[in-house]
Design goal:
With 123 residues, this protein is an all-beta fold. Helix content is 0%, strand content 48%. Strands 2, 4, 5, 6, 9, 10 and 11 form a seven-stranded mixed sheet that branches. A four-stranded antiparallel sheet has the order 1-3-8-7, with no helix packed on it. Strand 7 and strand 8 form a beta hairpin.
């Protein structure tokens, strides 16, 4: 069993930055692929960024070049550094985990989810 707790969301102006953190409990973090998803009001949950067990990163086109995902296995934590934020980045951001090597881009591919953290970008 893995429990995920996100933090770091908030209100920021267009062009600003935020860093999200996701702390995982349990002993399987190092064997899990991790990802960040986001869900805006009235929209489906969408993949934002993923990182494999070995540190290979993948990004949605909408965030590529602005967001960076990283992981610290010693701290059982995954991060999402978000720069050059836009109003369309406003959403609830969720951390997700699955015990496989590479992170799928479908939400259905994950076994564990955090409770989400709100990110609001004002124009």
């Amino acid at each position: 069993q893995v429990q995920l707790v996100e933090s770091g969301g908030g209100l920021v102006q267009t062009g600003g930055s935020l860093r999200l953190s996701c702390a995982a409990s349990g002993r399987t973090f190092s064997s899990a692929a991790m990802a960040w998803f986001r869900q805006a009001p009235g929209k489906e949950r969408e993949f934002a960024a993923g990182i494999s067990r070995g540190g290979r990163r993948t990004y949605a086109d909408s965030v590529k070049g602005r967001f960076t995902i990283s992981r610290d296995n010693a701290k059982s934590t995954v991060y999402l550094q978000m720069n050059s934020l836009k109003p369309e980045d406003t959403a609830v951001y969720y951390c997700a985990a699955v015990t496989r090597q590479y992170p799928p881009e479908s939400a259905g591919g994950y076994d564990y989810w955090g409770q989400g953290t709100q990110v609001t970008v004002s124009s």
